[in-house]
Design a protein that fits this description.
The chain is 23% helix and 26% strand. The chain has 237 residues and is an alpha+beta fold. It has a 4-stranded antiparallel sheet, with helices on one face. It has a two-stranded antiparallel sheet with strand order 5-6. Strands 7-8 form a two-stranded antiparallel sheet. Strand 9 and strand 10 (121-124) form a beta hairpin. The chain is globular, with a radius of gyration of 19 Å. The two termini are 28 Å apart.
């Protein structure tokens, strides 16, 4: 189900990127790096990226992209550092597109169809948004539900498909960016397995991810836990 058309003009979707200064003690605070916005006006989605200053008091519009060095302490007490890349406007468009038109990625029906806690009560996210008048009423049980790929109680097949859907399907689907769309993969979670191209090219998928070649934009550090899951999944096919 496509929710993109259900958002009215004036809708602003935001996503903020940050690191905890010390993952062992999150009370020490976090360093916000950027906030990305998708703004719908006259039926068209526009993109804007704001970079936060060091004092965390203000953010300025940045459409040309930049790199900024950042360090933090992980949960094991290890100091990590990365050259964080704030995308350009064109790089945003590379991934955020459907049929060559700017499009949101996260707020799909499948992604929203999960249990969340609101006002101390566990409720389905879509049902909650419908009760607030944000979404039209439609049967939630007709929407696919995707597992959390970190949930080890779920099957390996479900977790592997979920990881590909969350990290790769925005480009690798027939309506995505032309270059990856032409490769024939379709990693959307509700695509039947025999139509995904996974079984035919599992070695290519594995090598591209293990070598850090994918995702094409924004990859500076290897997601070791996620890659290990994906390799285990592909090896079991």
């Amino acid at each position: 189900m496509n929710l993109e058309e259900k958002f009215s003009d004036g809708t602003i979707l935001t996503k903020t990127f940050f690191y905890f200064k010390d993952e062992r003690d999150t009370s020490l605070g976090k360093q916000i790096i950027e906030t990305r916005l998708l703004i719908k006006k006259s039926g068209i989605w526009n993109v804007a990226t704001y970079q936060w200053n060091e004092s965390q008091t203000d953010a300025t519009l940045e459409l040309n992209g930049l790199n900024t060095q950042f360090s933090w302490i992980d949960a094991n007490g290890k100091t990590l550092s990365t050259l964080y890349h704030v995308p350009t406007q064109n790089e945003c468009m590379a991934c955020h597109q459907s049929n060559s038109t700017m499009s949101p990625l996260g707020p799909t029906a499948t992604n929203l169809n999960r249990e969340v806690v609101r006002n101390g009560i566990e409720v389905n996210q879509i049902t909650h948004m419908q009760s607030m008048g944000i979404l039209d009423n439609f049967p939630v049980d007709q929407v696919h539900q995707m597992v959390n790929y970190k949930d080890k109680n779920a099957s390996l097949a479900e977790r592997g498909r979920a990881y590909l859907a969350m990290n790769c399907a925005h480009c690798h689907n027939p309506k995505g960016w032309d270059t990856p769309a032409q490769e024939g993969f379709d990693f959307r979670y509700d695509t039947p397995f025999d139509q995904t191209g996974i079984q035919d090219d599992q070695n290519e998928i594995r090598n591209n991810v293990v070598n850090g070649q994918m995702p094409f934009i924004g990859t500076t550090m290897l997601d070791e836990e996620g890659v290990a899951l994906l390799v285990e999944y592909l090896d079991g096919i």
